[in-house]
Every structure is written in structure tokens, then in C-alpha cells.
Amino acid sequence: MSEEILKPEELDAKARAILKLIQSRKQQGLTPRDRIAIPVQDMPSQDPLVRAKTVTEVALGYSEGQARVEAERCLGCRNAPCVGGCPVGVPIPRFIAEIQKGDFKAAVDIVKQTNLLPAVCGRVCPQEKQCQAECTLGKSLKSVEKAVAIGRLERFVADWERNNGKVTTPTVKFSTGKKVAVIGSGPAGLTVAADLARVGHEITIFEALHKVGGVMAYGIPEFRLPKSIVQAEVNTLTAMGVHIETNFLVGRTGSLEELFSNDGYDAVFIGAGAGLPKFLDIPGEHLAGVLSANEYLTRANLMKAYEPGKAATPMFESKVVVVVGGGNVAMDAARMALRLGAEQVHVVYRRTRTEMPARAEEVAHAEEEGVIFDFLRNPTRILGNELAQIANIELQKFELGAPDASGRRSPVPIASSEYLFECDTVIVALGNEPNPLLPRTVPNLETDKRGRIVVNADQKTSLDAVYAGGDIVLGAATVILAMGDGRKAAAAINAQLSA
Question: Is the pLDDT score of 2 beyond 70?
Fold first, then answer.
């Protein structure tokens, strides 16, 4: 993060001054050394003290001047290593080149050739571990934080298109007469639907909940991904002719077999996500006030618990909250707890900040807003009062030992270091596994020991004409990795239906 915190209008004025210099220099031609010298553009954001009490979006997005300056940092590498780091293969140098010209519509159209959810991905994808990790500029400066801000540029052009009324519906080919059912409307399902609709297949999405978007609707908070953004992306799909049926739980409302035998579908894609939360398996998890992050965020996001007078669900009122975990979901839960009125929010993580899997930007935002981090700690039990409500959580101290199989240093408990911490809410954010309902209701569908559907390289399952992808295959992963599965599955389904 920049040490100098400037207001959005100050960042824009600074960027426009730099852009003027760049444009005068371009007449002689910008060298790679010139581009390397262009400063990284900070993302404007709301004041931390203001945003911690509201669910409006934290990151405000680049101004036009900032986007143009950041785009000029791109070296336009011929081998485009950034594209190789993108799970859906966005032609990154091509869309950034259009931003350099000021043609934002051309830029977003290039992105949407392979990614129909650019406003979503620009906000929530971990670019620093994917496309930006491969950026030549970042590598030359020995810092991924100084790589070209590909995600921010993707968000900019997507927002520009929507805000200026320039959204166009992708071209759809003539009908093939083939029907494909997509189970789940998360990022994997929406990607499959988009790719297969483009080539003329009739697509119906079956969503178990009353809102479309999967984890983008129920899991990621409004302050990080506004639901109007998700709906706008979904509207593009429906404009392409994709049908969506909500409140349809495959395995209960109807079976997978019936989609073939009764409804005449030629192929099925399963993208039902990972909705079964993991718990700590310690004494006291039955007490009132212990929640999974999955439930907590669903109540807050999908059921709008942040609007007490209008909320469609009750919400546990907390004063002191302990969130257990170190990933993005833990950050989302902690930051939402502040917005729901908690006086104090602690994130308990058994390693250090360096080992946290959460995005650095999300951790920094949480700290700015007042979330307290208790590193090298882990719960051993939860204690209740006479009403079976949480009174304390017992935490044990840890130290770091040798690296584990993933390369992170293993946490080692310190003997006799346990102590009690007074709190009234514990939110467990240790990840999710696939919901077992669908696999259990589909005979001969192969799953692994964790309940994840087994697929081949083309995302095909053990059943004919049945494909799967996203979290139900990967476990709890990222939006863009789920989309990558969706693209592979769509290509394989189209090849099967076109044979």
C-alpha cells in the first residue's frame, strides 16, 4: 500500500499530470525503461472509519486518467506470460493496448471474448497469484505489487461500459437444437452457460437458492462485490437467451436422471459449489453464538442482515467476535461483523501474517477498518454460561516450525500456553467441502474421499454426458479457477454435441 493516502480526486489529478507527460514523450517513443519508471497507480478507496460502518463498496475503482497511466506501464510482451497465468486466457496485452489508445469499449470487448464476468473478476480474483504473478514488469522490479494492475484495469473497462450504457450482448449463433442443463449459477455454471449459448445450444441454469450468482451472491460481501454488479453480468446471459430457474434443488426438486429422461437434455454440467462448512471439532461448538462463516455471510449478504429493518433473516447480535481462519472468507466475515455492529473483532490464525492465504489487500483493508489480528493462536475449546451461550474461548499459543508440504512453515503448539478470551461470538472460517446431497442422489457418480466429484482433463465425470467443475470438483477455490473449469467443460460439451 502507498504510504501517502490521497483522496480519489487527488489521485486523478496526479494521474492526469503524469499522463500528459507520457503523451508528450510518446511522440519520441516510449522505451521499456520509460514504462518501468511510470509509477504504480493506487486504487482509490473509501475512508476506513466511514466504510467500516457501511456496506457500500470499499474500493472505488480507477479514474480514466489512472487507467490510462497504469495501462502505459504494460510492456506489451510478445510472449504474453500474463495470459498463461490467467485460468480463462484473457488476451491481456491486447485489451491493455486499447486502454492506452483510449478505446475502452474495444478493450472490454476483447476481455469478454473469454470472460463474460469482467466486473466480477476485476474485483475479486487473486491476480497477484495468477496473471500479475507472471507479469514481466513485476518480475523485473522484483515485486508482484509493482506488476501491471491487470485486475484493476479489467474492472475499469467493465465499469466504464456499464456506467456509460455501452453494454452489448455477445453474438449468439443459430440454434443447434441441443439442450444443456447447468446445475448451479456460480462462476463455473455461468461461464459454461455463456460459452455454450454463444455457439447456439439451448441452456437452462438450475439454481437451488432464490438468487442467482452462487458464492458471488451469498458469500462475497456487498462492500467487496456489489450484488448489482453480479446481476448486471447475469442480465447479459439472459439477453443471450439463457434460461434460469431458481428454487430448484437437484436431488430434491428433481433428479439428474429426470433432466435427461423427462426433460430431454443432451448434456449436464454440475457446478453446485462447496456449501458444506468445516468446523474445528473442539468442545463447545454446539453453543449459541458459534457460526460457520458460510451461514454468517449468507445471512448477511443474501438475506441482507445488514438492513435490520428490512432483513429477511434474524442475525446474532455480537459485541466481541472471534473469527477463526486466515483466508479471504475469514476477512469477509470479520469485516462484515464490524458492519453489523460488533464492538471488537479478532481474527485468530495459527500462523503469522506472512503465511495467511488471504489477499494482502483484504488483510490491509481489515486492519485499516479496525479488525484485530491474533497470530500464532488456535482455539482448543469454547466455554459457555448457564444459558448455553458462549462466555469464553480458550486459545493456545503457537510457534512456527519447519515448512509443511505446501511450503508454509508448520505451526507448533506451545505446551501449557492456553488462556481464556472473553467473547460472545465465534465464526469458523476454515473452508467448505461439497454438499453431499447431489452426489448421494446420483448413482455411479464417482467422488473422492472428500466428496468432490472426480473428473478427467475435460471435466467429464464418470457418467456419460455429465460434466462438472468449480468448487464441487476443486474444493473451496477462487472465482476465476471455477471459471477456468467452466471454459474447459464448455469446450468438451460442445465437442460432444457437435460430433
Answer: no
